[in-house]
Amino acid sequence: MHSLIQLSIAVLLLPLLSFVFLIFFNRRLPRMGDFVGVGMLGLTFGISAYIFWTVIVQHYDPAFRLAWDFTWLDFGNVPGVGPLQIKMGIVVDNLTAIMLAMVTLISFLVHLYSTGYMKGDKYYGRFFAYLGIFTFSMLGIVLSDNLFSIYIFWELVGLSSYLLIGFFFEKDSAADAQKKAFLANRVGDIGMWLGILILYSQFHTFSYREIFEHLAAGEFGLSNAWLTAAGILLFMGCVGKSAQFPLHVWLPDAMEGPTPVSALIHAATMVAAGVYFVARIFVLLTPDALHVIAFIGAFTAFMAATIAITQQDIKRVLAYSTVSQLGYMVLGLGVGAYSAALFHLVTHAFFKACLFLGSGAIIHAMHHEQDMRWMGGLRKNMPWTFVTFVIATLALAGLPLTSGFMSKDAILAGSLGFAETEGSWYFYLVPVLGFFSAMLTAFYMGRQIWLVFFGESRTHLKPADPHAHHGAHGHDGHEEEHHGVHEVAWNMRLPLVVLATLSVFIVYSPDPLDGGKGWFMKMIPTPATVVGAVHAVEPEAAAAAMGPLVAEASPLEGHDAEAALHAETPMHPEAAHAEASGEHGESHAFADPRQAEIAHLSHAAHNRAIQISSIMVVLGIGLALIVYVFRFIDPDGTAEAIRPLYLLSFNKWYWDEIYQATFIKGSMLIAAIFSWFDRNIIDGMVNGVATLTRKFAFFNGSFDKYAVDGMVNFTAFFVNTSGGVLRKLQTGKVQTYVVMALLAVFGYFVYYFAQLVS
User: Fold this and answer.
1) CA–CA separation, 340 vs 613, rounded Å?
2) CB of 208 closer than 8 Å to CB of 532
3) What does the alpha-carbon distance between residue 182 and residue 161 come to, in Å, rounded to a whole number?
4) What is the model's pTM?
């Protein structure tokens, strides 16, 4: 077994070991064993960093791939199915190495941060155990080499999020949030499982590589519509995990969990899983499936951004920001800006983790106050938090010199090239929604920065709460006064500094306007290399086989040099042509004959995307300054003037109410109908049969009692009576017998003479 495979297995198992150890022994250890969780994740990150260095830096080959598997279950030759085996395995490629480093780093920083934030919680040790199982589940998704094993870890992520979102289970709101998240994700997971079954029914394998080999050989027996359906059903898993419309409603409520959990969910684990999964199955997605994905991503990005602009809870603003940014990633995958979407997945993980941990530092310092209306002026008391929060905010807004500017603009450039290549007017809705979302992002983050860090403290303006507020950690005791706000300790401050540093452009490229020429973008694998492109099929045969399914997909997905499709361009056109021609030893089934046209459009779109995006960001920040700094526009008066729109945003487009009125009440109505049917029809039939059976049994019992038993009893009575009479005659006395003989003779004579007389 290759050493990198062995190290990857160690990376997977160490967080699981942390969970097992802490869940059983945390109360027997000093500090409830927090050092075990932090130490295990530190070691996990160290190994992941070594894998990252080996794969990305030393090999520096986008096509690098190692795989190992074993037969987990062997059912033999099943009648009607044939040989049935289920294999488990792991794959290590560039994308795996990048994701391992990202997930373990953020998880390690969250563990370290939690030693300060969760200090004093009565379930402190259990919290670190749950963080371990959560990290293990996500690493399993990253390393899985087939659909079956990824589904197992997919469900483990759902379980882990259930435990952590409802960690403060004594609060009804937390218990409701964990159930909402669990059920919403099950809806998406059902669709995902159906998509897996469609593919398995055709290929009798769950392996990514084997499925793609079969597709490349043209062995998909069903129609193109079925492949589209399979792709959309698989995408439903992403809709659930990555909180895309219409299953986005669970993610903002997940804020009921501890803030470090929010950082982990929103940055490196649960929500990242959906985007990562779509990247893994990207090659089998048909043009129609990609169009659906692109429009859902664009709408989700815009809708969530419109909701974030009116929220008052500091974490809820960031939650809807996460939904919006996930929409960008899904949009990027849908339009074929594959590398840009993955690039944004990584950059967003760092600056969003920084924002959530920063919000946690603010909440911690403000004695668990989360409403931004009662904050203000915190930059003086919390300078480290302020600087790191602002850097991460600038990255989220997409300002130049930040990582978010590079990744988000690459997606927007891809969306422009997508719309121009497709041609129809409605495809332009995708970039339009994307650019407007960029403006809204800059506005609501500018609003948040001002309300939290600038102006004067507004703590004294908070209305008195008649109900005692218990701390966010579920501590007993009364609400503390909001005084003495100060910077958090080093163990909460250090993660903020690290994450803010990773939000600066220089980490990814020396040129913030490089258009994807930096080392990071070059090392993100292209679709063919991620899925393990087919080596055994000749290029012409592969293209012919996949043509109806893939070659006519979104024009931005159709070649390995897909940087030519959008601004992230991971290689120059010459290199792109060389790779598409197979000079790297790889036969690609995904060449697009319109490559030259697409390359031209994408290069043109790159500069336009930067210009339009910069204008929208400036407009968003300018509007925030006008409304909240210079007060040229009264926010309260404006909200009243456009009250229907304000309420639409503040009430989250009424999605919860709509779902309550339709799906939930509809389900309850259906349940009531079935209950009535069960009580009155099913139970009525059962009860009717029972009544008839009872009456028949009564008649049968009466017949048995009076007829059958009566005859038996009469016979017994007759025999008994006869026996009694005969017993009188059978006395055993000679005198009696003599008298009876004389009577008999006398009777005979009487009878004889009577006959004579007559």
Assistant:
1) 15
2) yes
3) 8
4) 0.82
What are the residues whose beta carbons fall under 8 Å from the beta carbon of 758, sequence distance 6 or more?
A: none
Q: Is the pLDDT of residue 658 over 90?
A: yes
For the cut 90, the answer to whether the pLDDT of residue 498 exceeds it is yes
CB 142 within 8 A of CB 345: no
Residue 591 sits at φ, ψ, to 5 deg, of: -70, 135
Tokens of 213: 């080999």
CA distance 195 to 280: 14
- How many whole angstroms separate alpha carbon 33 and alpha carbon 125? 6
Residue 517: pLDDT band (50, 70, 90) is: low
Half-sphere exposure for 390 (CA within 13 Å, toward CB): 14
CA distance 325 to 332: 11
Report how far residue 364's alpha carbon sits from residue 74's, in angstroms, rounded to the nearest whole number: 53
| Residue 14, C-beta contacts closer than 8 angstroms, at least 6 positions apart | 40, 41, 43, 44, 47
- Rounded to whole angstroms, the Cα distance separating 693 from 707 reads 20
Asked whether the bond before 246 is cis by omega within 30 degrees of 0, the reply is yes
Written as one letter, the residue type at 60 is: Y
Q: How many other C-beta atoms are found inside a 10 Å radius of the C-beta of residue 271? A: 29
Compute how many other C-beta atoms are within 10 angstroms of the C-beta atom of residue 650: 15
Amino acid (one-letter) located at 58: Q
Backbone angles phi, psi at 68, to 5 degrees: -150, 135
Q: Can you give the length of the chain in residues?
A: 758
Q: In the structure, what pLDDT confidence band is assigned to residue 525 with cuts at 50, 70 and 90? A: low
User: Is the confidence at residue 602, as pLDDT, over 50?
Assistant: yes
Q: What is the pLDDT of residue 24?
A: 93
**pLDDT, mean over the chain:** 83
**Distance in angstroms (rounded) separating the CA atoms of residues 362 and 314:** 9
Task: Give CA–CA dist 268/141, Å, rounded.
Answer: 12
* Number of CB atoms found within 10 A of residue 540's CB: 11
Contacts of 16-24 spanning 24+ positions with Cβ under 8 A: 16/132, 16/133, 16/136, 17/132, 18/128, 18/129, 18/132, 19/129, 19/130, 19/132, 19/133, 19/136, 22/125, 22/126, 22/128, 22/129, 22/132, 23/126, 23/129
| pLDDT given for residue 514 in this prediction | 64
Alpha-carbon distance of 214 to 230, in angstroms, equals 15
